[in-house]
Amino acid sequence: MQEAAAKVFSYLRFSDPKQAMGHSAERQAEYARVWAGERGLLLDESLSLRDEGLSAFHQKHVKQGALGVFLQAVADGRIPVGSVLVVEGLDRLSRAEPLQAQAQLAQIINAGITVVTASDGREYNRDKLKAQPMDLVYSLLVMIRAHEESDTKSKRVKASIRRMCEGWINGSFRGVIRNGSDPRWLQFEDGVWKLIPDRVEATLFAVEKYKEGCGADRTFRLMKEKGYDTDFLGVSPQQLYRSVKLVALRGAKQLSVDGQSYVLDNYYPRLMSDADFDELQALTAQRSRRRGKGAIPGIVTGIGMTWCGYCGTAMTAQNVMHKARPDGTLSDGFRRIMCVSYMNGAGCIEGGSCTVAPIERAVMSYCADQFNLSRLLEPTIDGRDQRGELVRLKLKVEDIEQQLGRVTEALALGEGDGALPIAFLRKARELEAALDKARGETQQAERELHAASSWQRSADASIWAELAAGVEAQSAEVRDRVRQLMLDTFKRMVIYMRGVVPEGRKSAHIDVLLISNSGQRRWLRVERKTGNWTATSDRPG
Known about the structure:
Blueprint: E1 7-10, E2 12-14, H1 24-38, E3 42-43, E4 50-52, H2 60-63, H3 66-75, E5 84-87, H4 90-93, H5 98-110, E6 114-117, E7 122-124, H6 126-131, H7 134-170, E8 186-189, E9 192-195, H8 197-211, H9 216-225, E10 253-257, E11 260-264, H10 274-284, H11 287-290, E12 306-308, E13 315-319, E14 335-339, H12 340-343, E15 353-355, H13 357-367, H14 370-376, H15 381-413, H16 420-458, H17 461-472, H18 476-489, E16 490-496, E17 509-516, E18 521-527, E19 533-536
Parallel strand pairs: 1-3, 1-5, 2-4, 5-6, 12-16
Antiparallel strand pairs: 6-7, 8-9, 10-11, 13-14, 14-15, 16-17, 17-18, 18-19
């Protein structure tokens, strides 16, 4: 078998794409052509060994760029033995830690490939390094210098960014911070951030669909149908909803410097208020519950709130899809709700399964009545206590801050001797940990309070009435919206599929206990065949 002919490859890398506009690229490419021509070798550019704007210090040229492609080709044996890789200098090849950089060089050389540096004309291969071992030492020194230069530059840049972030937070700096990514619905023009109207509209449309419980694929399709340009998103439909977590929506810029996170408020123009953003974040915590699964998403199941009244275990749904009608819908009997304990043979005697359709009809009908819905969402003592809890947490934060201030002051004054300062330091660390925890609890309480205000959206019975027909028609899009209404309205549903007092398998009624997010409790007695209901605040007999 004839061995593949050796080839010459040229690798160009620019940490700043502007460098490619000068003579550097032309110079490097010409050197490679001349070098190959003088030796009667073929210059091969099939791997497109050109990395622009990719850092060799952070190894982006390996992880994302052409050098990574070349190294993989070397590992796979697709680069013929005797081939040559021409680079301007070893610092173009890598600015990583010296041991890592030399390992990459060794990988290439051990594959029988020669590395040529255009800047000094040196050649690195097994034969030459064996004859001149000091060349290996020289290569290591070059790599050490390149890494130290990049490391020093990186530290200076990070220190500068950190100062700018701290300046923004304390109000002493209001310039542009070129670090991290900026939202794609903005452009920086004439020294200010400006909104791009069509992109803003598309982004807010996606946010609204998310709040309604619409899946990413469906939202993406709707955006296309409405003529929105989705290319700027730069993500797949499955990743579409990453934007709902961006603090940029409320005008803030978030970035991290050496593991320390900074949130710069009022950096960008806002798309929504803080309260609306907090409500949105509360919804993200429900995402796995909000997204319906299957061809017919459940509106009372799959959202973590439906429980068996007999044994207290969760209830799940089953759609017998092979019994679907030509239009894809199912008759009532083939859409079931069942007790998980009974299903797994774990001991629920009274449970089993029953049709879920009458339960859905009853809940939709009940919530479509404004009087019933308003009473259901009236604040209870528990609901009113949310504000009291938030006040308590804020006072706790203030108290810890005061304690920490006193300890810090004592340390600064050098109070105590011997082990006392150590005790102060230990106390300071404990207080800092307690402060972080209390602040986190306060932020969560604020989000929950904002989210609680969104329940008033559910108090509009007309919304439930408008969606009832779509639920009955088994529309996946409508059902996803209703799932969100269910989460906005109810904390728990307890199902007694044979009645509170079990009436056997032929029971004509299903009893349902509704517990709202505000703490109100209502009982529905549902006719199994029709979904008609009667309501009471008392437990049915």
